[in-house]
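The instructor's notes for this session suggest beginning with a concrete chain rather than abstract definitions. Hand out the sequence below and ask the class to guess, before any prediction is shown, which regions might be ordered.
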Amino acid sequence: MQATVRLNGRVLWLSDRAEVMTRQLAGESLTRAEAGPLRDQISTDEMTPAWACLAFDETLGDYVYVGLRCSEDSADPAGVFPVRPKAVREGGFALSVAGLRRGKGSSREASPFAEWCAGIRVVIAESFERIYAQNCQNLGLLMSTDLTLAERLQAGEAVPIEAFLEDCDSLGEAIVRSGGLFGYTRRRLAGDTVPPRPAHPPGAMTYGEKLIAKALGVARVRAGDAVFVPADWRFSHEYVTPMAVSFLRHAFGNAVPALHDPESMLCFEDHLTHLDAVSADGSRPPPLVDAARRLGAVQREFCAQYDLRLHGRVPGGGSEGICHALMLERYALPGQVIVGTDSHTPHCGAVGAFAFGVGATEMANAWLTGDARLAVPGTCLVHLRSRLPAGVGAKDLALHLLHLPYIRDGRAIGQIIEFSGEAVAHLSTDERATLTNMVAEIGGLTGLIVPDAETVRYLRERRGIDFALAPWMTSDAQASYAHVIEIDCACLGAMVASPGDPGNGLALADLRASVPIDIAYGGSCTGSKRDDLRACHEVLAWGLSQGHRVAEGVRFYLQYGSEDVRAWCERQGYTEVFRAAGVTMLSPGCGACVNAGPGVSRAPGEVVISAQNRNFPGRSGPGQMWLGSPATVAASALAGYIVGFDQLQRDGFVSQAVSTPGRSCSEASRAGSGG
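After discussion, reveal the predicted structure:
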C-alpha cells in the first residue's frame, strides 16, 4: 500500500441543502465553510435506493446518492433529490464527506461499492455505522472520522496512510493494508498470515461474550478483540448473493477455492418475488423486473453448482418466507453463531443466537473460510422493569428505545444489545424477535435475549425440539457493560414513528392532529409473524363486530412472513376474518419493505402506516411513511387515520383523531459496569 494519499479528484460535501449539492454537481468546488452543515444519518437507502441495487456490477456507480434527500431549503415536506444518475461519476469526485452516522440502515454493500465504481476512493464522516464501515474496509475504501483530512486533501496535501488507519482495529488495519478482505484472505489461505486469537485468562463475561468465546474455543474474549468467529449458519438472499458471487469470481477467477461446509450454507429468494405485482400497474418499469429475474437466476445457478439449500419462490407467487424469519422458524438455536446478508439477521437473537449482518464481500469470504470478521464490541444492557401494559407490544417498546438520546446520538452503534427484565420474560419469542430485529435500527451489532423457559417452549412447540439450556447460557453477575438503560415499562403506551426515520418516535397519546392514511401495511419481518397477525386479527374481528371494515379509500395489505405462518393462520381461521374485513392478503416475501411489492406508496402526498421496521426516505415509495405496531396499523386501517386500538375502542370511530396528554415514563441510563 502507498505510504501517502493524494486526492486525484474533487471533494463532494454531502449537504442537506439542495442548492449546495446542485452547485457541486454542476462543477463548482466548494470549501467546507461554503458547503455549510453536512447531512447526518444518511442511510444506505439514500446512497443506493432499492431499485438501483438490481445492478450488481460496475454500473452501480451510475446511481450513487440518487436517493439523497435534501430538506433544509425545500418547502416540500418530502424534500428534494438533487443527484441525478451518473452525476457523481461524471463530476470527477474522489472524496465524499458527511456528518454523523453515515451508512445507517441496510447492510447492502452496494452502497460503498457504488461509491467506488463512481470514482470515490476516500469517505469521511463524523461517525459511521458498523456494517457500512466494515464494508468500506473490505472493499478497500479509505475512511476517517477526522474531517480536517478532507480539507488537507482538498488543498493538495499528501496525507500519510496512517491517518486513515487510526479508527481501525488491528485486523481492520491488516485488511486495509492488504487492499481489502480478499487480499487478506489470499494471504490467509496461503498460510502467510493467521487471524488473531484472544488469550485472556478466565473472567466474568456477558452472555454475548461467552457465546463468542465458546465459538472460538477460548477462555475469554474482551471488547476490542478483533477475530474471525466460526459460524454455525451462513445465509444470503437474491439481493446480495449475485454480488457476492461476482466478487468471488473477480478475486479468484477460475480458481475459486472450495467452499467451506456447504451443508451450513443457505440461500433465500425473498426480496424481489413481488416485484411483478407492482410492475403490472406501471409503477415499476419492465427493465427492473428483468433485472430482478436475473438476480434470482444467478443465485439459482450458484446453488445448483455447489448443491446448496435454496428456499425460493412458491407456486402462485411469493416465497417460502423472509430469510431471517425462516432462520428463526427452522434453523437457529441458542448458543449458535449466524451470519447473513441482511441487516435484520439479529432477528434470531430472540432464541439466544448470536446473529449479525454482513456485506457481500464478507459473505463471499465466509463461504471460503466458514467464519466472519468480528470486532468484539461492548454490551449495552437494556433492562426492562415491570410488564408491558395490555395493548402495548414489542414494536412500541422498540420505537420508544429508538428515540432515547443514547441511541439517537449513535452511542450504541456496533454494540451488543442485551435485553433483560420482567417485561422480556413475559414476551413471546415472536415479540422478542421484533426487539432483536430492530437492533439494526439502533445500529447495534446484534440483539440478544438469554434463553429461558420461553425459549424451550418455543423450540418444543414450534419445531418439535426438546432443547436443554446449558449452565453457561447467562450473563455473569460481575460482567462489565459499556452502558445500561433502564426503563419502567409499566407506563409505556402505544408508539408511532413519524416519517423519515424510525427514531422519530412519539407516543400516540401525544399525536395532536388527525393523520388520515391512504395505505396500511402489515408486512415485513416485524409485522408478519404469528403473533403480529394474531394482533391484527383481534383488531379486525372487533371491528367487524362493530359493523366496520377497512375504511373507504384505504388500501390495507397483510403479508405472511412465511408459508408456515400462512398455514397456521388458515388453521386458526384468521384468513376468513381478514378477507371479510377487506384486507388484501399477500404471499410471503419482503415486498413493500424494500420498495418491491404491493403496499408501496406511489406519490409524495400519500400517507402510509406500516408495521415494518424502517421508514427512511424512499424506503417504500415517495410517500410519507409512519411506523407503528401491527395492532396500530390494523386499527388505523379501520378508522382511516392513525389511531391506537385502545383509543379506537374507547372513543369509537370519529372524524378526527382524539389526543390526550401522554404520561412520562421513568427511564434512566448510566455508564459503567454491573446490571
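Then share the key points. The longest strand covers residues 379-385. The chain has four domains: 4-167, 226-370, 375-494+666-671, 496-651.
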